[in-house]
Amino acid sequence: MHSALVIFAKEQSWWESARDWIIGVPLQFISIFVVALIAQVVLLWTIRRIVRRTTERARRERLEDSRRTMRTAELSDVLLNQRTEQRAAAIGSLLTSVVSISVWVIALLTALPLLGVDIVPLLASAGVIGIALGFGAQTLVKDYLSGIFLIIEDQFGVGDVVDLGPAIGTVEEVALRYTRLRDLSGIVWYVRNGEILRVANKSQGWTLAVVDIPVAYNADLDKVRDIIENVAIDMDEDPTYDDMLLGKPMFAGVESMSGDAVFLRITAKAVPEQQVPLARAIRERLKLAFDRAGIVIPVLVRPLPNMPTGPTTPRMAP
């Protein structure tokens, strides 16, 4: 009877020890990673919500202020301040990477002491290893630092059309180490941020649409000018062109002359990537206005490539 009590006491003591151990280290270990997972989800949700709200607010803003701005310097300032959507997406991508890495590094450093690992020597060793990696992985460090500065300085953002040297296309993702582009043919390019030596951003500020219109050499230029200016006023007041036109198109004057025609130039400030559709719209509106006013566009006969320009003598077939 006594031995049975001793065995029962030992079993009870073993179960209590096992229960204490389970409640102790494993539960704390699991709790740390559950808290880290919840923190990551909450922080990433917050970042996405802030980016979404900022983007929606930027989309609701119309270009009325920019259309009323006639000076180029003021127009550039207004449009660069309206890059909220691209900047928010780029910064959101950066914060997502930083938050994910930071949360799990902190969770790992908190969990290691529970396994009996002294993190003080580990941190000291990590400092030495970090210095060694700094020399050995200079390219990787360069990529990360370049990615941070590219985003902070707003050199480009998600949705911008850029020329980075190795590739030209639309920015789909700005990460810490690389930038992902998709070119016009649909090919996806991954460009390391450390290799970006220059950035030609075709989506910042405004672009210029240039239209050259030929009229007959003997046409009344004053009448043609009035027609062009009336078309420019109508397009400036037409809400159809709010998403592509910035300010009233301007009559630049006579660009060149030939024996048959006088070429007149019209310029207009356009929303980035909209200069080609805007130029087509200007040509269409001018064509209709010229038809109503009886202005005739001369027929320009130009020699085809590899075609002789001088008189030739026909050769008889044998």
Concise account of the structure shown:
This protein has helices spanning 2-60, 64-68, 72-81, 84-111, 119-136, 138-152, 221-237, 275-293, and strands at 161-163, 168-174, 178-182, 188-192, 200-201, 207-216, 250-257, 261-270. It is of the alpha+beta class.
Task: Give your account of this protein's structure.
- The chain has 318 residues and is α+β, with helices and mostly antiparallel strands.
- The protein folds into three domains: 1-114, no CATH class; 118-205, SH3 type barrels; 207-293, Alpha-Beta Plaits.
- It is 54% helix and 16% strand.
- It contains eight helices and eight strands; from the N terminus they run ααααααββββββαββα.
- The chain has helices spanning 2-60, 64-68, 72-81, 84-111, 119-136, 138-152, 221-237, 275-293; strands at residues 161-163, 168-174, 178-182, 188-192, 200-201, 207-216, 250-257, 261-270.
- A five-stranded antiparallel beta sheet has the order 4-3-2-1-5. Strands 6-8-7 form a three-stranded antiparallel beta sheet.
- Helix 1 (2-60) packs antiparallel against helix 4 (84-111).
- The chain starts with a helix and ends in a 25-residue tail after the last helix.
E-strand count: 8
From N to C, what is the helix and strand string?
Answer: HHHHHHEEEEEEHEEH
Radius of gyration: 34 Å
Arithmetic mean pLDDT: 76
Largest sheet: 5 strands, antiparallel
Which spans of ≥5 residues are poorly predicted at pLDDT below 50? 70-74, 309-318
Helix content: 40-55%
Form type = elongated
The DSSP helix count reads 8
Number of structural domains: 3
Content of β-strand: 15-25%
Question: Structural class of the helices, strands and pairings?
Answer: alpha+beta
Q: First CA to last CA: what distance? A: 134 Å
Strand order of the largest sheet: 4-3-2-1-5
